[in-house]
Automatic annotation (TrEMBL):
PANTHER family: REGULATOR ABRB-RELATED. It comes from Celeribacter baekdonensis B30. InterPro entries: AbrB_dup (IPR017516), AbrB_fam (IPR007820). The lineage of its organism: Bacteria, Pseudomonadati, Pseudomonadota, Alphaproteobacteria, Rhodobacterales. This is Ammonia monooxygenase. GO terms for biological process: regulation of gene expression.
Length: 359
């Protein structure tokens, strides 16, 4: 058996066991079971060293496109009109979240031996892959950045739904994520929208194309009344299994064994950021009269795919949560590169000055 064939069998076995974990979590009644179950299992196998292969990052776009296209169906004309009036709150929450992330990044840099630019890349909510790429461009070790970003997303995905359910009441099994129905033409149209949007956004080199592209096209179709048919629940569950398995596999064994002190600091900073942003969101909800669940999910420093899926599972205003997340993304994503360049330049000048050399 060739090495490639063996890896394919191993990957297939991993997805099978991950599906079983999702089923067990769903029977127990854990929120978002088809994502959290595979995530916990994959992370445990990876950290223990039993998972010998890397789950291809190319599997993630399928999950992103599926969820994004489904999320876009929530953007009805009435929902879009309601979002416009909340734009000031969305922008305010995004900027406040940035301030919280900056504060935590400063603490992280002072508590460890990592650079300030590396600390900011580890803390600011963005894609783990994109953060790692920026870290390499600035000659930073990408491993702690990936660990911090992945830990943040995993913590949000696991803790936020459980916290909301603990405060609002634990779910019954009727609360599972509901999809549409199997309709060859309707599902095919939605899939075509998702693929077209993803390819176009990728061609234009826009950030997060596999989520924002399908979301834009699906939202536009829904807003003008074309009414694509939502994917069936089985397809949504499959998308969650793929996303959860990949996310858990990014927790590498060597990071947990060789950098324990740094790991503890990163975990602490992650929980601190989540706590600060959640308190800020609850305070904003109290001042504006909005639902606290919406603002907590909207401000949560997790991936927009995961938060949209969480909102759908929790039966919270999906369009509003997604709009909050996208507002933060459109403010953060274009600005993170130049902010990191500015920080990197400042650090180089500071180091050169302290060593008595010219920058």
């Amino acid at each position: 058996m060739s090495l490639r064939t063996k890896d394919m069998f191993t990957l297939a076995a991993l997805y099978a066991v991950a599906s079983l974990a999702g089923w067990i979590f769903s029977r127990i009644g854990i929120p978002l079971p088809w994502m959290i179950g595979p995530l916990v299992l994959s992370a445990a196998l990876s950290v223990s060293g039993l998972l010998k292969i890397a789950v291809p990052v190319k599997t993630r776009p399928f999950g992103q496109m599926t969820i994004a296209a489904q999320v876009g169906l929530a953007f009805t004309p009435a929902a879009l009109a309601a979002l416009i009036g909340l734009a000031p709150i969305m922008i305010g929450m995004a900027l406040s979240s940035a301030a919280c992330a900056g504060f935590v990044a400063l603490l992280l840099a002072r508590s460890t031996n990592i650079s300030l630019s590396q600390a900011f890349l580890s803390t600011f909510p963005t894609s783990p892959v994109e953060a790692a790429i920026m870290a390499e461009r600035h000659n930073c070790d990408p491993a702690p950045v990936i660990l911090a970003q992945t830990t943040r997303i995993a913590a949000v995905v696991i803790l936020v739904p459980i916290a909301v359910f603990a405060m609002d009441g634990w779910p019954d099994r009727a609360g599972v994520v509901r999809g549409g129905t199997f309709d060859l033409l309707g599902n095919g149209f939605l899939a075509l929208l998702a693929i077209t949007g993803a390819l176009l956004f990728k061609r234009l080199r826009l950030s997060n194309p596999y989520f924002l592209g399908p979301l834009t096209f699906s939202s536009a179709a829904s807003a003008i009344g074309l009414h694509p048919t939502g994917f069936p629940p089985e397809m949504l569950s499959l998308a969650q299994i793929i996303l959860g398995t990949w996310l858990g596999s990014t927790f590498r064994h060597d990071l947990f064994v060789n950098q324990k002190r740094q790991l503890i600091t990163i975990l602490t900073s992650t929980f601190l950021l989540l706590g600060l942003v959640s308190v800020l969101a609850i305070g904003m909800a109290w001042m504006t009269g909005q639902q606290w669940e919406v603002l907590v999910l909207g401000a949560a420093p997790g991936g927009v795919t995961e938060m949209a899926l969480t909102a759908k599972y929790l039966s919270i205003d999906l369009a509003l949560v997604t709009a909050f997340q996208l507002t933060r993304i459109f403010i953060f994503m274009p600005n993170i590169p130049w902010i990191i360049r500015m920080i990197d330049t400042y650090e180089k000048r500071k180091n050169a000055s302290s060593s008595g050399q010219e920058p």
